[in-house]
Amino acid sequence: MPATAPDASPAAGFTLIETLVALVILAASLLACYEFLASALHGATAAERAAVAYDRRQSALALASALNPMEAPEGDLDLSVYRIHWHAERLGAARQSTGFPSGQGRFAIALYRIVLDFPGDPSVPAIAVTKLGYHRERLPDQPAAEEAQ
Questions:
Q1: Which pLDDT score, from 0 to 100, does residue 6 have?
Q2: What total number of domains does the chain contain?
Q3: Is 42 inside a domain boundary?
Q4: Domain assignment of residue 58, given as a range
Q5: What does the alpha-carbon distance between residue 54 and residue 124 come to, in Å, rounded to a whole number?
Q6: Pick from 70-79, 92-101, 127-136: least confident
Q7: Rounded to an integer, what distance in angstroms lies between the CA atom of residue 34 and that of residue 8?
Q8: Cα distance between residue 118 and residue 86, in whole Å
Q9: Is 2 inside a domain boundary?
Q10: How much is the average pLDDT of 120-146?
Q11: Angle at 119 (CA atoms; ends 124, 92), nearest 5 degrees
């Protein structure tokens, strides 16, 4: 009895249609993976921009706390990476401070609105604060000659 070749069954390999369907499924899953990575990268970029803006606003507020707007109503602070510009506008008339326990004080005072912005960086909005400005108008009273001895 001669040996016969085994029958070739139709399930022995992949057909062209099965291969194309598998490639379409693979492409769809890779596209979803790409969308996820693009979204994550966009979120990381937005978080970095927000962190830089927060840092710059904190620096501007620290500068505003150290400013005396009556002495320096306008100026720039160069921090090498970025620059802070401020402009102070007086909100009312300057007044004389009061002394303790009564009488006139040594300072002229006025309320100012200070606007701090970042030239060259439009992504960080300007910051406005209200602050008291002061200027010494007279020195403390000298003690009398009898009190000094």
A1: 60
A2: 1
A3: yes
A4: 16-140
A5: 9
A6: 92-101
A7: 41
A8: 9
A9: no
A10: 78
A11: 85
